[in-house]
Amino acid sequence: MTLIPVEYHGVHTAGPEQFTCVLLRWAEQNRILPIWMSPLAAAELDIRQGGYTPRRPGTIDLLLDLLNRSTGGVTAVNIISHYEGVFIASLVLADGEQLDARPSDALLIARALELEIHVEEDVLNQASFFVSDDVLEEYFGLRFDSAPTTSGEELSASGDAEADADFEQMMRSLGMSESDFFEGNGPADAGPESDSGPDDEEENTEKD
């Protein structure tokens, strides 16, 4: 298993249905990995990222307290699997044990403990995609200034026609066209994020 560090770039919404996701970036390849999750999970991640501290311990606070007392705490957060739009994360504990987790919970823990997030390389190759710098800046308020395409070349969104096809396929899997994906959706400053696919059964379990 090859784990690659990724950058965390906050909670965003996409498309007319306002699906929520966290954007992770594979900097070395300039690729974006969206982690889709339910609005409830995204909202909690977003408000905690903004500095909110609940007056009473929440589920994540209780989990961290139990892990600290019983195992010495969490030492790493990894995303290790992706199948049919569903991601599986792993919490690596100080005693060497690993616990499977939903990405929403794993990301909450990573942000709470200021841990770097790593993603299995196969998952990145399967589920990440290119988005042009201009699109990222216009709709998500992000810019990474990747290398420009040589003057005179025909431009695609990413400079890679195959990558654009992958991106289009991802959007169609969400029931959206390219115009739907960006229609009326400006930069997201404080919107909720997402975990796995928006049609993932996790959304139902989050609401239980």
From TrEMBL:
Which ranges carry the BFN domain? 3-131
In terms of SUPFAM superfamilies, this protein maps to: Hypothetical protein TM0160
Organism of provenance? Corynebacterium hylobatis
Q: Where is this region: Disordered?
A: 147-208
Q: Where is the composition biased (Acidic residues)?
A: 196-208
Q: Pfam families per the record?
A: BFN_dom
| Superkingdom of origin organism | Bacteria
Give one GO molecular function term. Answer: nuclease activity
Residues annotated as coiled-coil are none
Protein name per Swiss-Prot or TrEMBL:
Bifunctional nuclease family protein
